[in-house]
Structure formats: structure tokens, C-alpha cells
Amino acid sequence: MPISPQAPNLAPAADHAATAAQPVWPALAAPHAAPQDHWIEQLGRRRNDDFAWLKYIPETGTRSMDQLPEPLGSLLQAERQYAQQMLAPLAASAQGFYDAMAAHVCSTELVPPAALQGWAYSSRPGAGGQRVFVRSHSDGRVQTLVDEAVQSQGQVYYRATDHQASPDDRYYAWAEDLIGNDRHRICVLDTHTGQTQVPVEGDAFGYGGLTFSPSSQDLFWIWRDAQSRPSRLYRSALQGGQPVLVHEESDPALFMRVARTAANGFVVLSLFGPDTSEVRLIAAGQEHAAPRVLRPRERGIRYEVNEWDGSLVALTNAGGAADRQILRLDPAQLQPQHTLAPHRLGVPITMMQPFASTLVRLQRVDGLPQLVLLQRDGTETTIGFDEPAYSLELLPGQHWDASHVRIKHQTPAQPPRWLDIRLADGQITDVGRETWSGVDPANYRIERLQARADDGQWVPLTVLSRKDIDASQPQPLLLTGYGAYGIAHEASFSLPALAWADAGYRYAIAHVRGGSEKGHGWYQGGCREHKRNSLTDFIACAQHLQRLGYSTPQQTVAHGISAGGLLVCGAMNMRPGQWAGVIAQVPFVDMLNTMSDAGHPLVPLLRPDWGDPLSDPAAYDYIAALSPYENVREAAYPPLLCTAGLKDDRVPYWEPAKLIANVRRRSTSTAPALLLLNPDSGHQESDQQESVLGQAARLWAFAQHCALAGKPPAV
Where along the sequence do coiled-coil regions lie (predicted)? Predict the structure, then answer.
């Protein structure tokens, strides 16, 4: 299958010398973005954002190439053509990576949950790598609910999320993005009639933005405003009628999420930011009543609630529990009654999932997840795994009265497998797995290493390689990281990562500060005035792998997505000679200007993570000293490839476009800086296989070209 036509139409490959000191690129003139003075006065500071003219926001609608004003439209079209031409010699390499990934065909074997009556819901890979959602009944019936290959027919862009069944199993809902701008429509299948309705035509919020009422009569859903902020909760009757406004949030610094408690006793509206929470409850049987505030929002206090053993339970950092504790709440006053899972510093509790008999939680020990089963009498069973690196996921939508909890376990070399953990005693049963043709986990080596940071902290590293590579020789290395918002970079199975390893190279994840791998302190150690730690951690990881002989600076390519783009581009500014190349996908790199834009949909929410340069001079100075765009300097920069989605509202296209323009202006090397702009996508590529694998193949071909130039000749 050829690489997606959304991307550059690459020409036949050209040979290159593996012993060359620098990769050979076509001798083409890059597009020129002429700087234009744009002086900004802020908190007594003055700066010239002379590529500010690359920013364009239409008065209405979504950006498209044909509506861009001049000379911006011509420049971005020239950037697309230039990227095409510069990457054209890598066509055979890109096609090779694509074919290697597409050749792996996935089959899934999954049995229904143990001792369960009624329907069980699951998904499996379908045509084009998209998903087919099905349900199986305990009497043997199997029903297809949604086939994404069918849903996406005729769509340039398609991505779906939040698939779920109603409590009575009659309805099945999901959210679809058909544009690429994260503004969803909501679809509901009536399994009795086979008809699908679209009660919300657009502007809905996916990713935790919808749930059925406990009675299955209504759908609660979240609406996005003109700034793409989730700001209203509506209730729509499934039998028709106008939506009813349930709650409108005026604080732009809070996000919204809606769900039901595990025992189906409440609809829970969660309002939250990095350091604030407020939960509002709607009780079953009172689904048209106004929500009740559980605990008013308070800066510094985060909490989420569910119900278990006849009362509500809260997972919270209250009482100084930085890595969180689980508290039982008094049924009448909803105040803490006693502790179910105490706080342990450095052992963060990441999730809880109640069942009728058992309260299940996920926690991390030394950065790796564990499952803990808590019984009503207080006894606990801990479930761990022996692999050096792995990820665990508690599957959503599990039955309250189940006798087992189903989890998904995977490693960078082992595709997902589903395990049923018996709640009574922790006995594990393997109940299904993804099997990818041509993938044998026994062929790969997974290592969990630690790099010493500048300040003495130990930074975890996950490394994937084939067992049959020549360990005596340094190899091309693709080093990726994220390090933001307290989000852990999971050691999960990835077809692109496996394709890189199958080429004889090493793939590594740097679990830098800013994530939550080692708890809340690890997150706090990489945000605001400590953000520099994330960047120096990433550099330390690269240098550690190079000292081990795994790679060299001439063979190491940095890779990051979104806030991970800030990570790798900041590290590039600090140490441009450390990298053979840098790949930044939809990168957050115009940090100072974006955080100074109060109208940006995410800025009010994320000020606790980055600081507020509009009101805090110290935050301004710190961000100004770190922001990748502002800190490009005269130095020999490595080859740089940035991707962008024209419809992206989270990290708009002009952030990487401005960085590219500044690198071209200041770099003293002849290495190219490329902007790979997709006019049909937003912050994420479409879910279709050609889009996902096609983009990965092009990026890996770029990385390979950069790294092989510095590979020592074979002895």
C-alpha cells in the first residue's frame, strides 16, 4: 500500500554514503519568511516578535489553505513544496518503513469477561487499521456496533473517541471528529432498531465529554465554546427534544469531564485544572435536578470521586498527600470518614476503579505500575509484573458486580494482552491478546536504565532493540520524551517503534521530569521555574546512552510530540551538536507568546504548569530564557523536521513555522529545517492507517538519513 497522498509524494531514493560526516540533502533554496518588526511591551520588558505575521486566525470557521491571506498563503504553500522536494530522495526508505509496518497484520482473540451475564463490550482491528466495536452476549450472540472504516468513508479526516454503552445496554454512543479541530459530533446507536442518530451535530467535546444517565433516558454531554474550551454541560433526551443546559463554567482555567460512578448511583461532573478540582453530583432518580457541589474548588486541592461499599470515595491530594490517598466519605455530610489507601510519598496512586466486592487501584513503584486489590475488610493484594518496562490499563465500562477486573498489559515488544484478575485473591488468567504477524517478542531486548541528571537525580530510561544487533557497535538511536503536565510516558507497544528497532537501531524513551513516573514531585520538578530540568534530563539521557556505547551524537535523533516538541527543541538550543537530527511533531515552541495570549483555549488552564508571563515578571523572565523560538542562537544546528496541522487549535501551525524561520535565519550549518504541514489535520493525524503509518514512515526515513551519515563504518 503506498504512503498516504496527504503527505509529500516522494520520488525514488538516492544512494548516500554511510561513512559521510553529514547527510547529503538536495541543494535547494528554502522559502524565506521575511522578518517584520512587531515590538511587544510587557511587564516592563520589550521584545521583537518579528515572525508574528505568520499567525492567522480566521474570523469564523476553520482554517484552510485557500483562505490564507497573502503573503502567508504563498509562504506555507512554498513550505509544503520545499519539504516535498527535500524529502523526495528518501522515498524508498519511507516506503520501506511503511511496508514493514503495514505488513504486520493484527488478529485479536478475546473471550468475554468471566462469570458475567449479559453483554460484554470490546473492539478489534478492522479494515485499514481502524477499529470495529462489538459486543458479545453470555448466550453466544455477537453484534457489531461501530465499524470505523465504514464511518470514515468519504472523510479526509476521521478520529473517534469515548465509545460507551448505556446502563440498560440499549444504546451505544461515541464522539467523532470529521474536521481535525477536536470539535466532535456525537452519534448514538439504538441497538433495538439498528438506527443511528446524531443528537449533537458539532462543537461537542470528546475525551471524557459524554455519558448516559443512570436511567438510560438521557445523554449528558459537554459543549466547546468559540475558544474551543469545554464550558457547558448539556442533557439531551434520547427520545428527542432540545438540549437542556445543566451547568455553565465561567472560569477558563478549568476543564470539564462527565462520567457515571461505577455503581451507577451518580452522574459526576468534574471541573479541574492542574492544581484545582470541584465535583458536582447528579443522583440517579434525580437526573433532571441541579448538580450538587461535593467540595467547593480550592487552589492546591485536587480530588475525584466514585462510589464503593455504600458510600462515596475520593482519590485526593488533600491533607498534604502529594501522591494522593483514597478516603471514604460520610454518606450524609460527604466529609472524609476514614482512610482506605494511605498516602505514600513516591508511590503515586494514578487511578481507582470500584467493584461491588473490591476497590481496585493503580499505583506506581519506581516508575512502574502495580495493581492493588483492596477488600472490604482492609486486606490488600498487590499484582506486579517482572518485565523491565511495561504499561497497565484498567479497561473502562466494567460491570460493577464482576468477579474479575480486566486489565490490558503491554510492553514495547509485547503487543497488548488482556488479563482477568480475580478480585477475591488476585489470580491471573490470560483471556486474550493482539497477535501481529511477523512479531515475536522473544526477538527483542527491553532495558530499564537510569541516567544521572545534572543535579544528581536518576532519570529512568526505557530502551528497545533487537537481540541480534551488534552490541559492540554504536547504532542509530531515536530518543523520545514528553515531560509535561504530570503525564507519564508509558512503555507501550508501538508499531513505529518496532519498525525502527527492526531496522537494526535502538529506540529509547527518556522519562524526564515534568511527567509523573516517579510521583508528584517528579512532575513539579519539571514545570514552571523548574522546567529547565526536563531539558537537561533529556540531554543527560542521550549522553548516558552514548557513554554506554549504544550510540554517538552523530547517530542520535531527538523526537518529541506537542509539549515533547518543546523538550527536544529546547534541548537542541542548549546542545545543537548533541543531535544528528531533531523531529518535533506539532511542537509547542512559541512558549512566551502563547502563554501571553489570554485568548488561547489552553492558556488559562495551563498557567500552573508554565507560569503567567502576563502578570508575573519572574515567570516572564524564566519562560523567555527557555522558550525554543526565542532562544535560537547562532550555532551549527542539526537537520530539523517539524510537523504541523493547519486546523490545530492546541498548538497552531505558526508555532513550528516561526521556529523554522528563526532556525534558518540563525543557524551556521547547511542542515535543512523543514515544515511538514498537513492542511487537513489538527493536533492529531487522522486515525486511518495510511495517515498514522505514513507519517511515521516519513519521520523515520528522515531520522535514518540523519543518523546513518554519522554511523561508523563496519569493521
Answer: none
Per-residue pLDDT of 16-59, as tens digits, reads: 333 345 789 999 999 999 999 999 999 999 999 999 999 999 98
Pairwise CA distance, residues 556 & 475, whole Å = 9
Cβ within 8 Å of residue 460, ≥6 positions away = 367, 448, 449, 450, 511, 517, 518
DSSP 151-178: HTTT-S--EEEEEEE-TTSSEEEEEEES
Locate 670 and state its grid cell.
Answer: 547547511
Closest by CA to 562, choosing from 685, 673, 463, 458, is: 685
Grid-cell match 467493584, residue found: 355
Q: How far apart are CA 90 and CA 580, in angstroms?
A: 16
Q: Cα–Cα distance between 345 and 364 in angstroms, integer?
A: 11
Q: What's the pLDDT tens digit per position in 50-86?
A: 999 999 999 888 899 999 999 999 999 999 999 999 9
Q: Grid coordinates in use for 218?
A: 438521557
- DSSP label of 290: P
Distance CA 653, CA 651 (A): 7
Which class for 38: exposed (0-12), middle (13-18), buried (19 or more C-beta within 10 A)? middle
What whole-number distance in Å separates Cα of residue 514 and Cα of residue 488? 9
- From 57, 51, 43, 59, select the one nearest 79 (Cα to Cα): 51
103-133 pLDDT, tens digit per residue, is: 998 888 777 665 467 898 888 888 877 899 9
Q: How do 159-165 and 444-452 pair as beta strands?
A: unpaired
317: its cell numbers: 491530594
Contact, 355 vs 401, CB < 8 A?
A: yes
Q: What is the pTM of this model?
A: 0.92
Strand partners, 234: 221, 245
